[in-house]
Amino acid sequence: MENRIIEKQNMDVFVNNLINSDAEVVGAKRKDGKYAFGKLADATELCLDYDLALYPPKSYLLPPKETLIKFELGEELEAEPVVEAERVILFGVHPYDIKAIELLDVAFSGTNPDINYLSRRAKVTIIGIDCLNPNPNAFCASLGTATTDTGFDLMLTDIGASYVVAIGSSEGEELLGKYAVTREATQSELVQRDEQRQKALAKYKVALSMSAEDLPELLDKSWDSPVFKEKSEKCLSCGSCVMVCPTCFCFDVQDDIALNLKQGERYRQWDGCMLVDFALVAGGENFRRDSETRFRHRMYRKGKYLWERYGKLGCVGCGRCASACLAEIASPAETFNTLKEERRQHD
Ligand code: SF4
Ligand code: SF4
Description:
The protein is of the alpha+beta class. It folds into 2 domains: 3-201, no CATH class; 212-346, no CATH class. The chain has 12 helices and 12 strands. Strands 3-2-6-7-8-9-1-10 form an 8-stranded mixed sheet. A 4-stranded antiparallel sheet has the order 5-4-12-11, with no helix packed on it. Strand 4 and strand 5 form a beta hairpin. 40% of the residues are buried.
């Protein structure tokens, strides 16, 4: 992988050149003392040293609500698919969010390729940046998601006076050549990048007490654990943990018909397994009617089900769920560690 250097004084020029191109540039901006991804109007709005954005950049690939089909009712039904995709550059995405996007890519391109997702994805460029100041709730170091060698077009690492830029795709290379002032990286600068990454790994405050590969087996043995009931007793079923999660991709599909009963649209919007009516089906049956079964399902989805289906865990350890949960029970790391301790005492 080729590596270049952008001096810090040249970064604003690069960002502003991108803003003035044909793409919408999105990056982390300060918001009420926190950070949120949003459209950039100027390079000065961009934060590259943030710890965690409130929401992941997922909404630029899978909007919270989107129309899938518009239809007209008459003697014959006329239906038109709606596929909207704009060119977007996600600037400054942390490795764990890139890993989450890799999971979404697999999930939406499987046996039933999702044309809406894939059309957007084809127009999204990802410029990553290593997270050197992890959030106190993050545990990416335990999941191998604190750094990444894949999933980006460009990857930046802050080494003090400059950024090392790893080139991950021909599109990334083209952007650099067209819009940035760069020079070749020296061996010593690449060593500095490794040192910065190592230092960041040592800053994580939360860690799994087992290896990530052991999670499916741990969960296999933990179905009847009292831990799920104990923790879920505090659950408000608010759904915040799943709405902020970069790897959650469940949605509900509904039809809306105009008052004239002639036009309508089919849309989808985010849904989440921690919400009471998520597993409610016609006839009134709810397959997960209590918070314990919903809580357990979420943990299995994170640590077992998606691993078995896609070979990737359903959690990248970003810590957003733990940050969002008023009941302070949402961190998968905390539940997995409690289950591990329970097993240790049991075995
Ligand atoms: S489950 Fe929590 S820690 Fe894991 S990816 Fe989702 S929000 Fe992040
Ligand atoms: S675990 Fe926390 S964030 Fe998730 S639904 Fe329950 S109370 Fe809400």
